[in-house]
């Protein structure tokens, strides 16, 4: 562990392992960032053991705390023997005028893109942070099997998980999403963030839209699960999940789409099916090791 690179913020026992929060100075985002790391007992109790890593991306307004407090994922990560890492959703405290004005833009809403607009481009580079800086740092400082990673997320984090996987074929061995913002070029949340971070040229938005990216995807199997609540109040005018499913079918990209009556957009929904997702990722990740 390189103390110069990462600093321990907190550590609590959980299902035989450790739920930790760490911080570091991000070169991509040019600010201090927190991230969560769950260390399963398979690692905690066996010095020198390395395991696969699963990255979680959270939704609008979240920090690294929401998922580790609300979801109960630790039980499943402990059972499956995988490390789970969760970054914050945006830079924090970088003193950009207006960064804290709206819940759906700026702080807590980095949208997992690399901004090109002068006001935001120095700090708001969450895509490069998630796909480049964070994995490298995790590889260097935690007992993970290098190159053995998957990704999943919720809402804005579902969008982030999809584009990270689609733009980096083979980098993630599997991807799964809960209630993802699937076609942001047509949704209100997406249009607001894409305009603010990328400008008014809608052609520039297309490289950050999972529905459009999947239509030209030529990489290895995504091992994709899309979990969606039928009572989600954002399904019709923000998420556009069916557009993504239709695009997958049209592009012959395999997807396991699960639509559930009686479930909404909340962590009650996420926590209900989270164990199945972690098992899905663990099975695929360990199959690449042995």
From TrEMBL:
Pfam family, one: Esterase
Name of the protein in question: S-formylglutathione hydrolase
Gene Ontology biological process: formaldehyde catabolic process
Organism phylogeny: Eukaryota, Metazoa, Ecdysozoa, Arthropoda, Chelicerata
Catalyzed reactions per annotation: S-formylglutathione + H2O = formate + glutathione + H(+)
One GO CC annotation: cytosol
InterPro entries (UniProt xref): AB_hydrolase_fold, Esterase-like, S-formylglutathione_hydrol
Gene3D superfamilies for the chain: alpha/beta hydrolase
GO MF annotations in UniProt: carboxylic ester hydrolase activity; S-formylglutathione hydrolase activity
Family indicated by similarity: Belongs to the esterase D family.
Compartment list: Cytoplasm
Coiled-coil ranges per UniProt: none
Residues at the catalytic site: 155 (charge relay system), 232 (charge relay system), 265 (charge relay system)
Primary enzyme class: hydrolase
UniProt KW keywords: Cytoplasm, Hydrolase, Serine esterase
UniProt function note: Serine hydrolase involved in the detoxification of formaldehyde.
Organism: Oppiella nova
Taxonomic superkingdom: Eukaryota
EC number(s) given by UniProt: 3.1.2.12
